[in-house]
Fold each of these.
Amino acid sequence: MARNIELLLQENVENLGIVGDVVKVKPGFARNYLLPMGVAVVPTPQRIAALEAEREQAVAALAEQKERRNLIIEKLEGIALTMTRSCNDQGVLYGSVSQRDIADGLQEIAVSMNENIDPRHVRVATSIRHIGTYEVPIQFEQDLRTEIQVIVEPDQPLEEREEMEFDDEGELIEKPQPKAEETPAESTEPADAENTSD
């Protein structure tokens, strides 16, 4: 099994480190992305020293970002985001509400603080496909997390119809329809009405 290798980051890499950090990464990640894209280099004392000033700026920028994100988390607490979608009479959406839809719905709060909510910060396992109310986690970092309420409403009132059941995949379970009693059509014309003359 290949051992991890050490590289010096020349840029910030989310969930890995900031400029000036010496990090251990898998050889494939280094060979396929970090080295060819110029994101990282082999560390030397001269290179580490050259990036010291940039690293200090990155540390300060990250501290500011964390402060902004803390404020966003505070603003998001207890928030209810309402989204209107087209659906069928049983509340199944024609489409879905995705992570991006929810992130876009929260951008107004984020932009007011010079920050951005990425779809990756919206932690829903799968897209929402039914009308209803959902608790959705928003998480920037390990310790920056809150839950918001997402209310998905129909664009038109749902009609009252016979309740239908759905399986775990959200597919309609077909129920056998009772057959209407068939009555034979009765003829109103007398038999051989035209053949009465001799």
Note: The chain has four helices and eight strands.
Amino acid sequence: MAKKAVATLQTGEREKFVKVIKMVKSPKTGAYMFAEEILPQSKADEKLKK
């Protein structure tokens, strides 16, 4: 399960950035953790498909 943050991080006329939050399972304990990354909007969809 993954989602994009509602608000985009934008500065001027540069590329827009989004915060991607993805739930991943720990190989050691089996517990679920949340991995957060700030990516350019164009690469966010690629990251979520993996």
Note: The chain has a mean pLDDT of 80.
Amino acid sequence: MSVAVPAVAVTDLHVRYGAAVALDGVDLRIAPGRVHGLIGMNGSGKSTLFKAMMGLVRARSGDVLLFGGSSDAARRAGRVAYAPQNEAVDWEFPVSVRDVVATGRYGRIGGYRRLRRDDHAAVDAALDRVELTDLADRQIGALSGGQRKRAFVARGLAQEAELLLLDEPFAGVDKRSEATLTALLRDLAAEGRTVLVSTHDIIAVPALCDEVALLNRRIIAQGPVADTLRPELLADAFGGFVPASALGVAA
């Protein structure tokens, strides 16, 4: 029986910023078609791990493979989409929600960036899936925080990425956006896409994630939610204490 190639395979990954250790021998495996949570306190290395997967920070040592190949190859092929915690966006720039989502098609249409019929259809479908069709022509900065997060998820959908890396997509969002994103990410996993999402909202993890990994510069534990969100493991991940938000889910 053949074994599926992991969507993400990180092996003994070390990243430093000067003398500061950001990641210290991280090992992580994510099977395709799963929603996988990445949980840790601020400064635990979550954003650095995402950036290392995208080739945006240089590792001192270790390997990152996406779908069995290099992250660079996955990016060039449009197989991976990344939504950082804080998008480098001029929210005052006169660009519409539709324009932002359409950037997900740029890797498919060449340097002239002229959208074809199928590109417009993909953008429309992505907007519909995140429930932003009615706001498609609104200036991106006029959206609420939750709507902005949904717009950048839609960009990844328009790209038709097989792997979505979402850094704190629920931070500062309203309940409607949280529910919309949770349902959407579950649907995407059911369709065979893979999602890695960092979050502080531990209470929401059981409804969202198939598996989770606890990170504190290294992987403390990885596995099914019920087996991993345990007080002793959470204490290791959060520097000796269990977050109050975890008390409702830890066994």
Note: Residues 149 and 169 are 6 Å apart (CA to CA).
